[in-house]
Design a protein that fits this description.
It is built from nine helices and 14 strands. The protein is an alpha+beta fold and about 325 residues long. The protein has two domains: about 80 residues; about 240 residues, Endonuclease/exonuclease/phosphatase (Deoxyribonuclease I, Chain A), CATH 3.60.10.10. A six-stranded mixed sheet has the order 4-5-3-2-14-13. Strands 6-7-8-9-12-10 form a six-stranded mixed sheet. Strands 1-11 form a two-stranded antiparallel ribbon. Helix 1 runs antiparallel to helix 2 and helix 2 packs antiparallel against helix 3.
Amino acid sequence: MEKFQRILLVFHFFIVIFLLGTFLNGYIKPAAFPWLNLLSLAFPVLMLLNMLLIIFWALVKKKTALIFILCSFFLIHPTRRWVNFSGKSQETGNLKIVTLNGHSGIMGEEAMRSYLNSVHPDVVFFQESRFYKHENLELKDLKYRYKCFIVELHSKYEILEAGPILDNPLQGSSFYADIKINGQKIRLVNVYLEPFRFNKKMLNSNVSISTVGRFMNTFENIFLVHQGQVNMIKKFLDESPYPVILAGDFNAVPNSYEYYHLGKDLKDVFMERGNGISSSFHDYKFPIRIDYVFCSREINPVSYKVDRSVKISDHFPVIAEFKID
């Protein structure tokens, strides 16, 4: 039994090291060490194992459990990016946005249109907006529109100025659009980072060395592409003359390099107003969070919701409200 506990202690120690290692994504670029970003993908599983092992140690060795509990205090903030309980503000918002990867309308354009009209958004951020049957998905009361390759925005408010941010349409897309609410100009930034383009058959196939090798090569290549995209978008955000609302599909999970750097100096609206689990992509067996809404510190978020009541895409719609004074 003692030998088993020693092995388990070493195993638990490495789990905590890997969890704490995700902090390094805020400092180390994928170009320097791309595999560090993989730890962010494993974070939920590692955190679950950490909690189960703490329960085990609490039953057999309370002092050991206490040590791991103390170490886990440093993991509260990273965990809240996945699971949070902050709740809705008592204030009433005057700007309601929806961000949605539309999956090119494959799961039904009419269902998507009907849903979006039913939630009455002021602004819709679309990614993967290649709607095959219709060049434009007409939405009620949202008469202003800007499109940049496969990313677009529909707005109730006049778009004062808009333009692309990323310069390679073959590797994701991003743009900005300026609107005015209550005399306040707001810069909306729609982000769609380069996707991984995994084949579901490949994911469900038997694990082999060649399969693992293909996965690792894909991860490394995409992490490097993301680094370049994040640098361009972050520079643009830092130079914005107006408060920013950043939303879209990052194709990256919380605690990743992409999350840390795009979200730097901004508020994660899920952490401010979200309640429950943040996962938004449901096409694979393990649901993950890759859709985000961030805002400048001077903007007041009122509510945040991942709407799992509908399946109009392989992503759930994310709805957020703000009060713009």
